[in-house]
Protein backbone atom coordinates (compact mmCIF):
# COMPACT_ATOMS: atom_id res chain seq x y z
CA UNK A 1 0.00 0.00 0.00
CA UNK A 2 1.18 3.52 -0.77
CA UNK A 3 0.26 6.34 1.63
CA UNK A 4 0.60 9.48 -0.46
CA UNK A 5 -1.15 11.85 2.05
CA UNK A 6 1.56 11.37 4.70
CA UNK A 7 4.21 12.51 2.29
CA UNK A 8 2.07 15.52 1.37
CA UNK A 9 2.00 16.58 5.03
CA UNK A 10 5.80 16.98 5.23
CA UNK A 11 6.52 20.66 4.93
CA UNK A 12 9.85 22.32 4.59
CA UNK A 13 10.58 24.89 7.28
CA UNK A 14 12.53 26.91 4.81
CA UNK A 15 15.81 26.53 2.92
CA UNK A 16 17.71 28.93 5.25
CA UNK A 17 17.48 26.92 8.46
CA UNK A 18 21.20 26.12 8.48
CA UNK A 19 22.31 29.77 8.21
CA UNK A 20 19.64 31.00 10.63
CA UNK A 21 20.96 28.64 13.27
CA UNK A 22 24.59 29.32 12.40
CA UNK A 23 24.11 32.95 13.51
CA UNK A 24 23.15 31.70 16.96
CA UNK A 25 25.87 29.03 17.19
CA UNK A 26 28.47 31.66 16.31
CA UNK A 27 27.56 33.68 19.40
CA UNK A 28 27.32 30.53 21.57
CA UNK A 29 30.66 29.06 20.42
CA UNK A 30 32.33 29.56 23.82
CA UNK A 31 29.44 28.25 25.96
CA UNK A 32 29.63 24.96 27.80
CA UNK A 33 28.03 21.61 26.92
CA UNK A 34 24.76 21.40 25.02
CA UNK A 35 24.40 25.16 25.15
CA UNK A 36 26.85 25.44 22.26
CA UNK A 37 25.68 22.46 20.21
CA UNK A 38 21.92 22.10 20.53
CA UNK A 39 19.85 24.86 18.96
CA UNK A 40 16.86 25.00 21.30
CA UNK A 41 19.15 25.21 24.35
CA UNK A 42 21.60 27.56 22.65
CA UNK A 43 18.94 30.10 21.63
CA UNK A 44 17.91 30.59 25.27
CA UNK A 45 21.49 30.96 26.40
CA UNK A 46 22.24 33.44 23.59
CA UNK A 47 19.19 35.57 24.42
CA UNK A 48 20.29 35.69 28.05
CA UNK A 49 23.86 36.57 27.11
CA UNK A 50 22.83 39.41 24.78
CA UNK A 51 20.49 40.85 27.41
CA UNK A 52 23.29 40.88 29.97
CA UNK A 53 25.66 42.46 27.45
CA UNK A 54 23.18 45.27 26.75
CA UNK A 55 22.45 45.93 30.42
CA UNK A 56 26.13 45.60 31.30
CA UNK A 57 27.09 48.48 29.06
CA UNK A 58 25.29 50.95 31.33
CA UNK A 59 26.32 49.10 34.51
CA UNK A 60 29.98 49.21 33.46
CA UNK A 61 29.94 53.00 33.67
CA UNK A 62 28.81 53.03 37.33
CA UNK A 63 31.21 50.20 38.15
CA UNK A 64 34.13 52.14 36.70
CA UNK A 65 33.15 55.25 38.67
CA UNK A 66 33.09 53.16 41.88
CA UNK A 67 36.50 51.70 41.08
CA UNK A 68 37.98 55.13 40.35
CA UNK A 69 36.57 56.46 43.63
CA UNK A 70 38.09 53.55 45.58
CA UNK A 71 41.46 54.09 43.93
CA UNK A 72 41.46 57.85 44.54
CA UNK A 73 40.47 57.25 48.17
CA UNK A 74 43.37 54.82 48.58
CA UNK A 75 45.76 57.30 46.97
CA UNK A 76 44.57 60.11 49.24
CA UNK A 77 45.00 57.95 52.33
CA UNK A 78 48.56 57.16 51.29
CA UNK A 79 49.31 60.87 51.46
CA UNK A 80 47.23 61.61 54.56
CA UNK A 81 44.34 63.64 53.07
CA UNK A 82 40.63 62.97 53.42
CA UNK A 83 39.00 62.38 50.04
CA UNK A 84 36.23 64.96 50.57
CA UNK A 85 38.78 67.65 51.49
CA UNK A 86 40.88 66.63 48.47
CA UNK A 87 37.96 66.98 46.03
CA UNK A 88 36.70 70.16 47.65
CA UNK A 89 40.13 71.86 47.56
CA UNK A 90 40.78 70.89 43.94
CA UNK A 91 37.43 72.25 42.82
CA UNK A 92 38.01 75.48 44.73
CA UNK A 93 41.31 75.90 42.89
CA UNK A 94 39.56 75.37 39.52
CA UNK A 95 41.50 72.17 38.88
CA UNK A 96 39.08 70.18 36.73
CA UNK A 97 40.73 66.78 36.49
CA UNK A 98 38.11 64.05 36.36
CA UNK A 99 37.96 60.83 38.41
CA UNK A 100 39.38 58.63 35.66
CA UNK A 101 42.50 60.74 35.30
CA UNK A 102 42.95 61.21 39.06
CA UNK A 103 42.83 57.43 39.52
CA UNK A 104 45.38 56.98 36.72
CA UNK A 105 47.67 59.55 38.32
CA UNK A 106 47.34 57.84 41.70
CA UNK A 107 48.58 54.60 40.16
CA UNK A 108 51.07 55.66 37.49
CA UNK A 109 52.24 59.13 38.56
CA UNK A 110 52.65 59.05 42.34
CA UNK A 111 54.75 62.21 42.43
CA UNK A 112 52.13 64.22 40.58
CA UNK A 113 49.43 62.82 42.85
CA UNK A 114 51.50 63.79 45.89
CA UNK A 115 51.79 67.33 44.49
CA UNK A 116 48.00 67.47 44.11
CA UNK A 117 47.43 66.11 47.62
CA UNK A 118 49.91 68.58 49.18
CA UNK A 119 48.17 71.42 47.36
CA UNK A 120 44.76 70.14 48.47
CA UNK A 121 45.95 69.90 52.10
CA UNK A 122 47.24 73.50 52.19
CA UNK A 123 44.15 74.90 50.51
CA UNK A 124 41.87 72.91 52.83
CA UNK A 125 43.73 74.24 55.89
CA UNK A 126 43.57 77.83 54.60
CA UNK A 127 39.84 77.54 53.92
CA UNK A 128 39.34 75.91 57.36
CA UNK A 129 37.42 72.97 55.97
CA UNK A 130 36.09 70.48 58.56
CA UNK A 131 38.46 67.64 59.33
CA UNK A 132 41.65 69.62 58.66
CA UNK A 133 42.56 70.08 62.34
CA UNK A 134 44.92 67.12 62.33
CA UNK A 135 46.69 68.02 59.09
CA UNK A 136 50.28 69.28 59.08
CA UNK A 137 50.52 72.24 56.75
CA UNK A 138 52.98 71.31 53.96
CA UNK A 139 55.91 73.71 53.87
CA UNK A 140 56.37 73.46 50.12
CA UNK A 141 53.03 75.00 49.08
CA UNK A 142 52.19 78.69 48.78
CA UNK A 143 48.48 79.41 48.51
CA UNK A 144 48.84 83.18 48.19
CA UNK A 145 46.94 83.60 44.91
CA UNK A 146 44.70 80.55 45.14
CA UNK A 147 42.17 81.59 47.73
CA UNK A 148 39.02 83.43 46.70
CA UNK A 149 36.49 85.18 48.95
CA UNK B 1 55.86 38.99 29.73
CA UNK B 2 59.52 39.99 29.64
CA UNK B 3 61.83 39.20 32.51
CA UNK B 4 61.84 42.81 33.68
CA UNK B 5 58.06 42.95 33.32
CA UNK B 6 57.73 39.84 35.43
CA UNK B 7 59.87 41.36 38.19
CA UNK B 8 57.86 44.58 38.05
CA UNK B 9 54.65 42.53 38.39
CA UNK B 10 56.01 40.77 41.48
CA UNK B 11 57.11 44.08 42.95
CA UNK B 12 53.73 45.72 42.40
CA UNK B 13 51.62 42.88 43.80
CA UNK B 14 53.97 41.86 46.60
CA UNK B 15 52.06 41.32 49.82
CA UNK B 16 52.98 43.59 52.73
CA UNK B 17 52.76 42.48 56.34
CA UNK B 18 51.06 44.90 58.74
CA UNK B 19 51.03 44.79 62.52
CA UNK B 20 48.05 45.74 64.66
CA UNK B 21 48.06 45.97 68.47
CA UNK B 22 44.60 44.96 69.65
CA UNK B 23 45.09 45.94 73.32
CA UNK B 24 42.19 48.13 74.58
CA UNK B 25 40.58 48.03 71.10
CA UNK B 26 37.02 47.04 70.24
CA UNK B 27 37.23 44.24 67.63
CA UNK B 28 33.87 45.23 66.14
CA UNK B 29 35.21 48.75 65.51
CA UNK B 30 38.54 47.55 64.17
CA UNK B 31 37.23 44.97 61.72
CA UNK B 32 36.50 47.48 58.90
CA UNK B 33 40.07 48.81 59.09
CA UNK B 34 41.62 45.33 59.23
CA UNK B 35 39.40 44.16 56.36
CA UNK B 36 40.55 47.13 54.29
CA UNK B 37 44.19 46.04 54.55
CA UNK B 38 43.35 42.36 53.99
CA UNK B 39 41.49 43.15 50.76
CA UNK B 40 44.03 45.66 49.48
CA UNK B 41 41.75 48.70 49.57
CA UNK B 42 44.66 50.76 50.89
CA UNK B 43 46.36 50.49 47.50
CA UNK B 44 45.58 52.62 44.41
CA UNK B 45 46.09 49.47 42.27
CA UNK B 46 43.07 47.82 43.89
CA UNK B 47 40.65 45.86 41.72
CA UNK B 48 37.92 43.57 43.11
CA UNK B 49 38.89 40.65 40.88
CA UNK B 50 42.63 40.93 41.54
CA UNK B 51 44.12 39.33 44.65
CA UNK B 52 46.03 42.35 45.95
CA UNK B 53 45.47 41.95 49.69
CA UNK B 54 48.07 42.07 52.44
CA UNK B 55 48.79 40.09 55.58
CA UNK B 56 47.77 41.49 58.97
CA UNK B 57 49.29 40.27 62.21
CA UNK B 58 47.18 41.07 65.28
CA UNK B 59 48.85 40.89 68.70
CA UNK B 60 47.52 41.14 72.27
CA UNK B 61 44.11 39.85 71.23
CA UNK B 62 43.67 38.69 74.82
CA UNK B 63 43.40 42.35 75.89
CA UNK B 64 40.57 43.39 73.59
CA UNK B 65 37.81 45.52 75.08
CA UNK B 66 34.07 45.31 74.56
CA UNK B 67 31.85 48.21 75.64
CA UNK B 68 29.34 47.89 78.47
CA UNK B 69 27.56 44.59 78.89
CA UNK B 70 28.88 43.05 75.64
CA UNK B 71 31.04 40.46 77.43
CA UNK B 72 27.96 39.08 79.14
CA UNK B 73 25.32 39.74 76.47
CA UNK B 74 27.09 38.81 73.23
CA UNK B 75 26.74 35.07 72.58
CA UNK B 76 28.25 33.02 69.79
CA UNK B 77 26.29 30.16 68.25
CA UNK B 78 27.77 26.78 67.29
CA UNK B 79 26.19 23.54 66.10
CA UNK B 80 28.21 20.33 65.94
CA UNK B 81 25.94 18.88 63.23
CA UNK B 82 24.64 16.14 65.47
CA UNK B 83 21.24 16.32 67.09
CA UNK B 84 21.21 18.31 70.29
CA UNK B 85 24.53 19.84 69.34
CA UNK B 86 23.52 23.52 69.44
CA UNK B 87 25.36 25.77 71.89
CA UNK B 88 25.24 29.48 72.66
CA UNK B 89 28.53 30.56 74.27
CA UNK B 90 28.80 34.00 75.90
CA UNK B 91 31.74 36.15 74.81
CA UNK B 92 33.60 35.93 78.13
CA UNK B 93 33.52 32.12 78.05
CA UNK B 94 34.68 31.95 74.42
CA UNK B 95 37.47 34.37 75.19
CA UNK B 96 38.65 32.19 78.09
CA UNK B 97 38.77 29.13 75.86
CA UNK B 98 40.45 30.73 72.85
CA UNK B 99 41.55 34.39 73.12
CA UNK B 100 41.90 34.75 69.33
CA UNK B 101 38.41 33.59 68.35
CA UNK B 102 36.47 36.76 69.10
CA UNK B 103 38.72 38.91 66.92
CA UNK B 104 38.65 36.37 64.10
CA UNK B 105 34.87 36.09 64.19
CA UNK B 106 34.48 39.87 64.26
CA UNK B 107 36.54 40.27 61.07
CA UNK B 108 34.99 37.22 59.36
CA UNK B 109 31.40 38.31 59.94
CA UNK B 110 32.11 41.87 58.83
CA UNK B 111 33.21 40.63 55.42
CA UNK B 112 30.85 39.97 52.56
CA UNK B 113 30.10 36.25 52.17
CA UNK B 114 31.86 35.66 48.86
CA UNK B 115 34.48 33.14 47.78
CA UNK B 116 37.32 35.54 48.62
CA UNK B 117 36.43 35.48 52.30
CA UNK B 118 38.11 32.18 53.20
CA UNK B 119 41.23 33.05 51.24
CA UNK B 120 41.50 36.49 52.80
CA UNK B 121 40.96 35.18 56.33
CA UNK B 122 43.96 32.88 55.87
CA UNK B 123 46.07 36.04 55.69
CA UNK B 124 44.90 37.28 59.10
CA UNK B 125 47.25 36.05 61.85
CA UNK B 126 46.05 36.60 65.40
CA UNK B 127 48.16 36.10 68.52
CA UNK B 128 46.77 36.35 72.03
CA UNK B 129 49.87 38.11 73.44
CA UNK B 130 52.97 39.74 71.97
CA UNK B 131 54.88 36.47 71.47
CA UNK B 132 55.06 36.40 67.70
CA UNK B 133 57.28 33.89 65.87
CA UNK B 134 60.45 35.35 64.41
CA UNK B 135 59.60 34.36 60.84
CA UNK B 136 56.46 36.47 61.09
CA UNK B 137 58.12 39.44 62.80
CA UNK B 138 60.78 39.58 60.08
CA UNK B 139 58.17 40.20 57.40
CA UNK B 140 56.36 43.06 59.12
CA UNK B 141 56.98 46.48 57.57
CA UNK B 142 54.12 48.64 58.80
CA UNK B 143 51.98 49.18 61.87
CA UNK B 144 48.31 50.06 61.60
CA UNK B 145 47.69 52.79 64.21
CA UNK B 146 45.22 51.83 66.95
CA UNK B 147 41.73 53.30 66.58
CA UNK B 148 41.16 53.99 70.26
CA UNK B 149 43.72 55.83 72.35
CA UNK B 150 44.86 53.81 75.34
CA UNK B 151 44.25 55.62 78.62
CA UNK B 152 47.09 55.85 81.09
CA UNK B 153 46.40 53.96 84.31
CA UNK B 154 47.24 55.47 87.70
CA UNK B 155 49.77 52.72 88.34
CA UNK B 156 51.74 53.62 85.21
CA UNK B 157 52.50 57.14 86.52
CA UNK B 158 55.79 57.31 88.41
CA UNK B 159 55.91 58.49 92.04
CA UNK B 160 57.66 61.76 91.13
CA UNK B 161 54.97 62.60 88.54
CA UNK B 162 52.24 62.00 91.10
CA UNK B 163 54.01 64.17 93.65
CA UNK B 164 54.59 66.97 91.13
CA UNK B 165 50.98 66.94 89.91
CA UNK B 166 49.11 70.08 91.09
CA UNK B 167 46.73 69.49 94.01
CA UNK B 168 43.96 71.62 95.45
CA UNK B 169 43.51 69.74 98.74
CA UNK B 170 45.36 67.02 100.59
CA UNK B 171 43.57 63.84 101.53
CA UNK B 172 43.62 62.98 105.28
CA UNK B 173 46.22 60.36 106.15
CA UNK B 174 43.79 57.59 107.01
CA UNK B 175 41.75 58.06 103.79
CA UNK B 176 41.99 54.92 101.61
CA UNK B 177 42.41 56.04 97.98
CA UNK B 178 43.13 52.72 96.25
CA UNK B 179 44.21 49.21 97.00
CA UNK B 180 47.75 49.83 95.64
CA UNK C 1 57.33 45.37 76.20
CA UNK C 2 56.88 44.69 72.55
CA UNK C 3 53.58 46.56 72.37
CA UNK C 4 54.98 49.70 74.06
CA UNK C 5 57.85 49.92 71.58
CA UNK C 6 55.53 49.49 68.66
CA UNK C 7 53.08 52.04 70.01
CA UNK C 8 55.86 54.64 70.14
CA UNK C 9 56.69 53.82 66.55
CA UNK C 10 53.17 54.53 65.35
CA UNK C 11 51.36 56.74 67.86
CA UNK C 12 50.68 60.33 66.97
CA UNK C 13 52.15 62.86 69.37
CA UNK C 14 50.26 65.99 70.31
CA UNK C 15 50.69 68.45 67.48
CA UNK C 16 51.56 72.06 68.08
CA UNK C 17 49.21 74.26 66.13
CA UNK C 18 50.21 77.78 65.15
CA UNK C 19 48.50 80.65 66.92
CA UNK C 20 47.06 81.88 63.61
CA UNK C 21 44.96 78.78 63.18
CA UNK C 22 43.71 78.71 66.76
CA UNK C 23 42.50 82.30 66.46
CA UNK C 24 40.62 81.57 63.26
CA UNK C 25 39.15 78.33 64.62
CA UNK C 26 37.91 80.04 67.77
CA UNK C 27 36.22 82.76 65.76
CA UNK C 28 34.38 80.32 63.51
CA UNK C 29 33.02 77.97 66.21
CA UNK C 30 30.47 80.23 67.82
CA UNK C 31 28.77 77.39 69.69
CA UNK C 32 31.97 76.47 71.50
CA UNK C 33 32.72 79.99 72.66
CA UNK C 34 33.97 80.02 76.21
CA UNK C 35 34.24 83.30 78.04
CA UNK C 36 36.87 81.97 80.37
CA UNK C 37 39.30 81.24 77.48
CA UNK C 38 42.29 83.60 77.20
CA UNK C 39 42.28 86.21 74.44
CA UNK C 40 44.48 84.85 71.62
CA UNK C 41 46.84 87.21 69.91
CA UNK C 42 47.30 86.91 66.19
CA UNK C 43 50.75 87.58 64.85
CA UNK C 44 50.43 88.49 61.20
CA UNK C 45 53.74 87.87 59.45
CA UNK C 46 54.42 89.54 56.11
CA UNK C 47 55.51 86.62 53.94
CA UNK C 48 55.37 88.21 50.48
CA UNK C 49 59.13 88.58 49.97
CA UNK C 50 59.91 85.09 51.30
CA UNK C 51 57.17 83.58 49.16
CA UNK C 52 58.37 85.41 46.06
CA UNK C 53 61.96 84.16 46.43
CA UNK C 54 60.66 80.65 47.15
CA UNK C 55 58.45 80.60 44.06
CA UNK C 56 61.20 82.14 41.91
CA UNK C 57 63.62 79.36 42.88
CA UNK C 58 61.00 76.74 42.07
CA UNK C 59 60.26 78.29 38.67
CA UNK C 60 63.99 78.42 37.94
CA UNK C 61 64.45 74.74 38.89
CA UNK C 62 61.52 73.73 36.68
CA UNK C 63 62.85 75.78 33.72
CA UNK C 64 66.19 73.99 34.03
CA UNK C 65 64.47 70.59 34.33
CA UNK C 66 62.49 71.35 31.16
CA UNK C 67 65.76 71.72 29.21
CA UNK C 68 66.64 68.06 29.95
CA UNK C 69 64.01 67.09 27.34
CA UNK C 70 62.78 64.08 29.29
CA UNK C 71 59.59 62.31 28.32
CA UNK C 72 56.54 64.29 29.46
CA UNK C 73 52.97 63.16 29.96
CA UNK C 74 49.92 65.38 29.65
CA UNK C 75 46.29 65.22 30.69
CA UNK C 76 44.33 66.41 27.70
CA UNK C 77 40.63 67.19 27.34
CA UNK C 78 39.07 66.13 23.98
CA UNK C 79 35.38 65.88 23.16
CA UNK C 80 34.27 65.96 26.79
CA UNK C 81 36.67 63.24 27.90
CA UNK C 82 40.07 63.47 29.54
CA UNK C 83 43.01 61.30 28.55
CA UNK C 84 46.46 60.88 30.09
CA UNK C 85 48.83 60.83 27.09
CA UNK C 86 52.53 60.71 26.25
CA UNK C 87 54.43 60.58 22.97
CA UNK C 88 53.32 57.83 20.56
CA UNK C 89 50.08 57.08 22.39
CA UNK C 90 46.91 56.13 20.52
CA UNK C 91 43.68 57.77 21.64
CA UNK C 92 40.22 56.58 20.56
CA UNK C 93 37.50 59.22 20.33
CA UNK C 94 33.86 58.17 20.16
CA UNK C 95 31.38 59.97 18.01
CA UNK C 96 31.48 62.53 15.24
CA UNK C 97 34.67 64.64 15.24
CA UNK C 98 35.45 66.92 12.28
CA UNK C 99 39.22 66.43 11.73
CA UNK C 100 40.05 64.17 8.78
CA UNK C 101 42.66 61.45 8.36
CA UNK C 102 46.16 62.88 8.12
CA UNK C 103 45.37 66.21 9.81
CA UNK C 104 48.03 67.43 12.20
CA UNK C 105 46.39 68.87 15.29
CA UNK C 106 47.60 70.86 18.26
CA UNK C 107 45.50 70.02 21.31
CA UNK C 108 44.48 73.17 23.14
CA UNK C 109 42.99 71.99 26.43
CA UNK C 110 45.91 70.65 28.43
CA UNK C 111 45.02 70.27 32.10
CA UNK C 112 48.26 68.91 33.47
CA UNK C 113 51.78 68.28 32.23
CA UNK C 114 54.32 66.26 34.13
CA UNK C 115 57.61 64.49 33.95
CA UNK C 116 60.16 62.82 36.14
CA UNK C 117 61.16 66.02 37.95
CA UNK C 118 58.13 68.31 37.92
CA UNK C 119 54.39 68.67 37.33
CA UNK C 120 52.55 71.68 35.98
CA UNK C 121 48.92 71.82 37.08
CA UNK C 122 46.55 73.99 35.07
CA UNK C 123 43.73 75.94 36.66
CA UNK C 124 41.83 74.67 34.77
CA UNK C 125 43.94 74.82 31.58
CA UNK C 126 47.63 75.44 30.95
CA UNK C 127 48.89 78.15 28.62
CA UNK C 128 48.81 76.70 25.07
CA UNK C 129 51.82 78.81 24.03
CA UNK C 130 53.96 77.16 26.69
CA UNK C 131 52.70 73.58 26.55
CA UNK C 132 52.26 71.97 23.13
CA UNK C 133 50.65 68.60 22.50
CA UNK C 134 50.67 67.68 18.82
CA UNK C 135 48.72 64.82 17.32
CA UNK C 136 47.84 63.27 13.97
CA UNK C 137 44.53 61.75 12.97
CA UNK C 138 45.39 58.19 12.01
CA UNK C 139 42.04 56.61 11.26
CA UNK C 140 38.39 57.46 10.94
CA UNK C 141 36.20 54.42 10.99
CA UNK C 142 33.05 52.87 12.42
CA UNK C 143 33.27 51.01 15.72
CA UNK C 144 32.67 47.27 16.03
CA UNK C 145 29.02 46.22 15.79
CA UNK C 146 27.28 46.54 19.13
CA UNK C 147 24.21 44.37 19.54
CA UNK C 148 21.41 46.03 21.46
CA UNK C 149 19.10 43.22 22.53
CA UNK C 150 15.96 43.76 24.61
CA UNK C 151 13.69 40.98 25.77
CA UNK C 152 10.90 40.69 28.33
CA UNK C 153 10.30 37.04 29.12
CA UNK C 154 6.88 35.49 28.53
CA UNK C 155 5.52 38.72 26.99
CA UNK C 156 6.46 38.12 23.36
CA UNK C 157 8.63 41.25 23.36
CA UNK C 158 12.00 40.98 21.69
CA UNK C 159 13.96 43.71 19.87
CA UNK C 160 17.40 43.53 18.31
CA UNK C 161 19.32 46.55 17.09
CA UNK C 162 22.82 46.84 15.64
CA UNK C 163 24.77 50.04 16.29
CA UNK C 164 28.07 51.23 14.83
CA UNK C 165 29.36 54.57 16.06
CA UNK C 166 31.87 56.73 14.26
CA UNK C 167 35.31 56.63 15.86
CA UNK C 168 38.51 58.57 15.33
CA UNK C 169 41.95 57.29 16.26
CA UNK C 170 44.52 59.89 17.15
CA UNK C 171 48.28 59.37 17.46
CA UNK C 172 49.92 61.77 19.95
CA UNK C 173 53.16 62.81 18.30
CA UNK C 174 54.76 64.84 21.06
CA UNK C 175 54.25 66.55 24.40
CA UNK C 176 56.72 69.33 25.03
CA UNK C 177 57.24 72.67 26.69
CA UNK C 178 58.39 75.42 24.33
CA UNK C 179 59.48 78.25 26.58
CA UNK C 180 60.08 79.20 30.19
CA UNK C 181 56.99 78.57 32.26
CA UNK C 182 56.87 82.12 33.65
CA UNK C 183 56.76 83.62 30.14
CA UNK C 184 53.30 84.99 29.66
CA UNK C 185 51.78 87.30 27.13
CA UNK C 186 50.73 90.64 28.57
CA UNK C 187 47.30 90.43 26.98
CA UNK C 188 45.73 86.97 27.27
CA UNK C 189 42.73 85.69 25.35
CA UNK C 190 39.72 84.64 27.39
CA UNK C 191 36.56 82.86 26.38
CA UNK C 192 37.68 80.16 23.98
CA UNK C 193 40.41 78.86 26.28
CA UNK C 194 38.25 78.55 29.39
CA UNK C 195 36.46 75.22 29.85
How would you characterize this protein structure?
The complex is a heterotrimer of chains A (149), B (180) and C (195). With 149 residues, chain A is mostly helical. Chain A has two domains: 15-58, no CATH class; 60-147, no CATH class. Chain A has helices at residues 4-9, 17-27, 39-78, 83-92, 99-108, 110-126. In chain A, helix 2 (17-27) runs parallel beside helix 3 (39-78), helix 4 crosses helix 6 and helix 5 packs across helix 6. The radius of gyration of chain A is 30 Å and the shape is rod-shaped. With 180 residues, chain B is of the alpha/beta class. Chain B is flat and about 80 Å long. In chain B, helix 2 links the parallel strand 1 (17-21) and strand 2. Chain B has eight helices and six strands, in the order H-E-H-E-H-E-E-H-H-H-E-H-E-H. The longest helix of chain B is centred in the N-terminal third of the chain and has 13 residues, at 27-39. Chain C has three helices and ten strands. Chain C has 195 residues and is α+β, with helices and mostly antiparallel strands. Chain C has a domain at 72-177. Helices cover 19% and strands 34% of the residues of chain C. The A-C interface holds A 47, 50-51, 53-54, 57, 93-98, 100-101, 104-105, 108-109, 111-112, 115-116, 119, 125, 128, 133-134, 136, 142, 144 and C 12, 15, 17, 21, 24-25, 28, 47-48, 51, 54-55, 73, 75, 82-84, 111-112, 114, 119, 121-124, 146-151, 158, 160, 195.
Tag the structure with descriptive keywords.
heterotrimer; A: 149 residues; mainly alpha; 2 domains; 6 helices; 0% strand; rod-shaped; C: 195 residues; alpha+beta; four-stranded antiparallel beta sheet; 3 helices; 10 strands; 19% helix; disordered N terminus; Large ribosomal subunit protein bL21m (chain C); bL21-like (chain C); structural constituent of ribosome (chain C); bL21-like_sf (chain C); ribonucleoprotein (chain A)
Specify the overall morphology of chain B: flat
CATH topology of chain B: Ribosomal Protein L13p, Chain: A
- Under CATH, the homologous superfamily of chain B reads Ribosomal protein L13
Strand content of chain A: under 5%
Largest β sheet strand count, sense and barrel closure of chain A: none
The biggest beta sheet of chain B reads: 4 strands, parallel
In CATH, the architecture of chain B is Alpha-Beta Complex
- Overall pLDDT confidence of chain A: 93
Helix-strand string of chain A: HHHHHH
The domain count of chain A comes to 2
Count of distinct strands of chain A: 0
Q: Evaluate the radius of gyration of chain A.
A: 30 Å
Report low-confidence residues of chain B grouped into runs of 5 or more: none
The shape of chain A, in one word, is rod-shaped
Strand order across the biggest sheet of chain B? 5-2-1-6
What is the count of distinct domains of chain B? 1
Helix percentage range of chain A: 55-70%
Individual helix count of chain B:
8
Q: Which regions of chain A contain 5 or more consecutive residues with pLDDT less than 50? A: none
Q: What is the CATH class of chain B?
A: Alpha Beta
Amino acid sequence: MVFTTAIMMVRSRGPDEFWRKRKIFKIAAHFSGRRRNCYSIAIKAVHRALQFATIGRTVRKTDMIDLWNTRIKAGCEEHGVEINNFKDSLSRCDIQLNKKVLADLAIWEPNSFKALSDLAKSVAIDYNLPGTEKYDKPSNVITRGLLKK
Amino acid sequence: MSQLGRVKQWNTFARCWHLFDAAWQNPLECSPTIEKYLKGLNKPIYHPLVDCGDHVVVINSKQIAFPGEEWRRRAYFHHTGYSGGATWTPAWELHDRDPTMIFRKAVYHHMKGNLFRRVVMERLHIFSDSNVPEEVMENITNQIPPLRSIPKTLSSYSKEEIEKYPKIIDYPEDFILSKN
Amino acid sequence: MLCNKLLKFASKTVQTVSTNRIAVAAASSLNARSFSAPISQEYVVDNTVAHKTFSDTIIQTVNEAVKNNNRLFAVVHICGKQFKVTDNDLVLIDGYWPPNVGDRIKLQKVLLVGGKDFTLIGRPVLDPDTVQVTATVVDKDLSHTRTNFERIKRKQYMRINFIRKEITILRINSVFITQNIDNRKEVQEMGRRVM
